[in-house]
Specification:
Radius of gyration: 30 Å
Structural class: mainly alpha
Shape: globular
Number of helices: 33
Length: 723
C-alpha cells in the first residue's frame, strides 16, 4: 500500500472511466439533439444531476477526440516557454482584428460584444470545482485556487471577473440577462458555434479532476490570450508570468502522456479562439452589410409573432396584419415591400403615421426599443427622400459549418463510459465513489438519499439539542439578534467557560488513536463548501462570504496554509501513513477506524448539492466552524504537545475560526446576510421556511458530534439513530 506524502504531485485523476445509470444516456442524447443552446443551458444551469456529467463527457470528447501533438513535449519551463510563445504569436495575430471590431460603429460593435458575451461572462468557469477532495492539496490545484480567488474578487462577487465584464458590457450599451436566464443566448443572438465553445468551457467545470491537463492548458491560453480584455478594453486580472509559472510547474510534475494532453489542449484552445475571432469578424461583416431595409426586416421578424387581434383592423398590402404574420411561412420581404408603399409610411408634415404611432401617446408606443425606433426613423427618412429599397435580409450563417461538425462529434458516444446501476457498497466503497464522483456519477442518487436521510434524522435535536456538550441545536425562532445570542451562548457556555487544562495526559497510543477518529473528517476539510459559488451562482453576498471561508480552508492557494496539507503534516508526526483518499489503495488502509465514516459520508453527500441544499450547507457551515473553538481544540493541542506531535492543524483552526471576526462569526453573518436577501426578494413570510432548513443543517453537524446525547436518547426511547 503506497502512502501519501507531501508535496502532492497529483496531475490527473487515477481513474479514467465513468459509471452512469443506464437511463442517463437517453437524457443526455435528448439534450444534445436539441442543439448547442440546449447543451449550454443545461451545463450552466445544472450542477447536481448525473446527466450533466455525461453531457460533459460528450462535449469534451467532441472537442478533444481528434486533438493531438506530433512532437514529444519537453517538461517544465522549456515546454511552458514554447507554449507561451505560440500563444503570444496568436495574440499578435488577432490583436488588430479585435481592435477594429471594438472600434466599429456602435450597432456592429454591440452585436460583436453580445456574440462574445456567452464566453466572456463565464470566464474562469473551468476552475469552479478544480479544488475538491479528490484534488487537494495538489501543487497545481493550489496555483489555480490562487487564480480563482483573484477572479472571484477575493470573496466579493461585485469585484469578480464576471461582474467586471458584465459592467464593461453595459458601459458600452450591451445589456443582457444573467447567464443562467432561459433567454440569455437568444438575447445575445448567440451563434451555434458560440454556444458549443461555451459548452466546452462549462464541460471542463464539471470534470476538472479527470481532465486536469486540459483545464491547465485551456486556463493558460484563455487567460494569457485575453480575447475578452482586448475586446472590452479591460485590464487582465492575472499576470502572464504567473500563468506561465503555473503551467511550467504542472509540466514539470506531469509524465509525458499528461504533458501531451496539456499541449493538445493548448493547440485546441488556440484554434478555438482563432475560430471564434473569425466568427466575430463574420458577424460584424454581416451586420455591417445589412441594408436599412434588411435592418427593418430584422426588427419586424422579432416582433411579428406578437401581432395579435389588437391589429385586426391594420391592413398592409390589402391584408390584415393578423393574416400576414400568422401564416405558416411569413413573407417578410413581401410585407416590407408593401409596408414601404403603404399609407402608414407616406411622408406627411410632422412625419408619417407609423412614426407617430410608435411615439409616446401613439397606439404602438413601447413596442420598439430606442434603437429600433431610431432605425425606423432613418428608414422613413430614406423613403421620404425617394431612396430605392436596399437588399433584403440574408441568413446569418457565421460559424455554422464548424458548429455542425462539432455537433456530429459531440453526439457520438464518448469513450470511457460504462452503464450500470450504482450500488452503495460498504462505507469505504461509498466514500471512494463520493470522493471520485466524476468517475461515479451514478452515485449521485445515493448521495442525495444519504444527505436527505442525515438531515431528517438531525431534526430530533430540535427538541433535545440543548443537552449537547459542544453544540445546541434546539429550535428557536429566527431573528438576527436571536441567532447571534445563540452563537454567543454556545461559545461561552459550551466551548470556552467549561475549559480547564487537562491534569492527566493520556498515553501516546491513546492520543494517536483519538486523532485517527478525527483524521478522515480533517482530510476532507472544507468539502461542504467546495462547490459554492459556481459560475452563474456567484452573485449573493452569502456566496462570496462562504466561498471566502472555503478559500481560507485551502490557504487561498498557499500550500503552507492549506488545511489539507496541515492534517497530513500532523498524521506524519503521529507516524500514520495512508494513501490519499482519492486512490483505490485507500480502500484497504488499516490506520483509520471504520465505524466513524458516517460523518465524512454525510459531508461529501451534502456538498454535491450546493443549489438545492444551499440553506442546509449554510447551517452545517456554522456548526463546523464553531467546532474549531474552545475546550476540544485546547485539550487536543495539550495532548499533542505533551508527546511532541505536530499541533499545526489544531492551532490553525483555533485561530482562524475565532468568534470575534473569524470563521465562526462570519458563518453567522453569512446566514443573516442570506436571510436578509430572502426577505428583500421574497418577503418576510419566506424567511421561516429557509430558516428551518438552515437550522436543520446546523443540527446535522451536531448529530455527528453529540454521541453521548444520542446514545442517552436511544436508551430512553426506541429511536432509529445512525451516528
Amino acid at each position: 500500500m503506497s502512502a501519501f506524502a507531501l508535496p502532492d504531485s497529483f496531475v490527473v485523476a487515477p481513474l479514467s472511466t465513468s459509471e452512469f445509470d443506464p437511463a442517463t444516456a437517453a437524457t443526455a442524447d435528448e439534450v444534445i439533439a436539441a442543439g448547442p443552446e440546449s447543451v449550454y443551458h443545461r451545463l450552466i444551469g445544472d450542477q447536481e444531476s448525473e446527466a450533466v456529467f455525461l453531457l460533459a463527457r460528450h462535449v469534451l470528447n467532441g472537442f478533444l477526440g481528434a486533438a493531438g501533438e506530433t512532437d514529444t513535449p519537453a517538461d517544465g519551463e522549456q515546454e511552458a516557454d514554447r507554449l507561451a510563445e505560440r500563444t503570444a504569436e496568436v495574440r499578435r495575430q488577432i490583436t488588430g482584428m479585435l481592435r477594429s471590431l471594438s472600434e466599429a460603429e456602435s450597432r456592429v460593435r454591440d452585436a460583436v460584444l453580445a456574440q462574445r458575451a456567452p464566453l466572456a461572462l463565464i470566464g474562469g468557469c473551468w476552475l469552479d470545482t478544480v479544488s475538491q477532495p479528490a484534488t487537494q492539496p495538489a501543487t497545481v490545484v493550489n496555483h489555480l485556487v490562487r487564480h480563482q480567488f483573484v477572479w472571484r474578487g477575493e470573496g466579493n462577487p461585485r469585484r469578480g471577473l464576471h461582474q467586471l465584464r458584465g459592467r464593461a458590457l453595459e458601459e458600452r450599451g450591451v445589456f443582457l440577462p444573467e447567464v443562467t436566464a432561459p433567454d440569455f443566448l437568444r438575447q445575445a443572438e448567440a451563434r451555434p458555434l458560440t454556444a458549443w465553445h461555451g459548452a466546452y468551457r462549462l464541460a471542463l467545470a464539471r470534470l476538472p479532476a479527470t481532465f486536469l491537463p486540459e483545464v491547465v492548458g485551456t486556463h493558460y491560453v484563455l487567460a494569457a490570450l485575453g480575447v475578452d480584455e482586448l475586446l472590452l478594453g479591460t485590464r487582465p486580472m492575472l499576470a502572464e508570468a504567473d500563468l506561465r509559472a503555473t503551467l511550467a510547474d504542472y509540466l514539470a510534475l506531469a509524465p509525458p502522456p499528461v504533458r501531451s494532453r496539456v499541449c493538445a489542449a493548448v493547440t485546441r484552445t488556440l484554434a478555438m479562439e482563432r475560430d471564434h475571432v473569425r466568427l466575430l469578424a463574420d458577424v460584424a461583416a454581416w451586420h455591417a452589410g445589412l441594408s436599412l431595409d434588411a435592418q427593418v426586416e430584422r426588427i419586424v421578424a422579432r416582433h411579428a409573432p406578437f401581432a395579435g387581434k389588437q391589429h385586426r383592423n391594420v391592413r398592409v398590402g390589402g391584408k390584415p396584419l393578423t393574416e400576414r404574420f400568422h401564416a405558416p411561412d411569413v413573407d417578410l420581404a413581401g410585407f416590407l415591400a408593401d409596408f414601404r408603399a403603404s399609407p402608414q409610411m407616406k411622408p406627411r408634415d410632422g412625419g408619417c403615421r407609423f412614426l407617430r404611432a410608435i411615439k409616446f401617446g401613439g397606439p404602438m408606443f413601447g413596442i420598439f426599443d430606442e434603437g429600433e425606433a431610431a432605425t425606423f426613423q432613418r428608414w422613413a427618412e430614406a423613403i421620404a427622400a425617394g431612396d430605392p429599397p436596399g437588399p433584403g435580409l440574408t441568413p446569418n450563417s457565421a460559424g455554422d459549418d464548424a458548429a455542425y461538425a462539432l455537433g456530429e462529434a459531440i453526439a457520438a458516444p464518448p469513450p470511457g463510459v460504462r452503464f450500470r446501476t450504482a450500488a452503495r457498497g460498504d462505507d469505504r466503497a461509498f466514500l471512494h465513489r463520493l470522493v471520485n464522483i466524476e468517475n461515479f456519477p451514478g452515485t449521485l442518487t445515493l448521495a442525495r438519499a444519504n444527505a436527505e436521510d442525515g438531515l431528517a434524522r438531525a431534526e430530533i435535536l430540535f427538541d433535545h439539542g440543548g443537552d449537547g456538550v459542544l453544540t445546541d441545536a434546539s429550535w428557536f425562532d429566527y431573528s438576527p439578534e436571536a441567532l447571534n445570542e445563540r452563537v454567543d451562548r454556545i461559545y461561552w457556555d459550551k466551548l470556552v467557560n467549561p475549559y480547564q487544562p487537562l491534569t492527566e495526559i493520556p498515553d501516546r497510543d491513546e492520543v494517536i488513536f483519538h486523532q485517527t477518529t478525527f483524521a478522515l473528517g480533517s482530510m476532507i476539510d472544507g468539502a461542504w463548501a467546495h462547490r459554492i459559488g459556481a459560475t452563474g451562482r456567484y452573485t449573493r453576498r452569502s456566496d462570496g462570504m462562504l466561498y471566502s471561508i472555503y478559500a481560507d480552508e485551502m490557504g487561498r492557494g498557499d500550500l503552507a496554509k492549506n488545511h489539507i496539507t496541515l492534517i497530513y503534516r500532523v498524521l506524519a508526526s503521529l507516524g500514520i501513513e495512508v494513501p490519499h483518499i482519492r486512490d483505490t489503495a485507500f480502500l484497504d488502509q488499516d490506520e483509520l477506524p471504520d465505524h466513524l465514516y458516517g460523518f465524512s459520508l454525510f459531508q461529501l453527500s451534502l456538498a454535491l448539492f450546493p443549489d438545492s441544499l444551499y440553506d442546509e450547507i449554510l447551517g452545517y457551515n456554522l456548526g463546523i466552524e464553531m467546532f474549531g473553538l474552545g475546550t476540544m481544540r485546547m485539550h487536543e493541542m495539550q495532548k499533542l504537545r505533551h508527546h511532541g506531535f505536530d499541533v499545526a492543524y489544531e492551532e490553525a483552526h483555533l485561530a482562524i475560526d475565532n468568534l470575534s471576526a473569524g470563521h465562526a462569526r462570519q458563518s453567522a453573518e453569512i446566514i443573516i446576510a442570506y436571510l436578509h436577501d430572502v426577505a428583500k426578494l421574497s418577503g418576510a413570510d419566506a424567511v421561516p421556511s429557509h430558516w428551518r432548513r438552515i437550522w436543520r443543517g446546523y443540527a446535522s453537524f451536531a448529530y455527528f458530534i453529540e454521541h453521548d446525547l444520542l446514545a442517552g436518547l436511544a436508551r430512553r426511547e426506541p429511536l432509529d439513530l445512525v451516528i
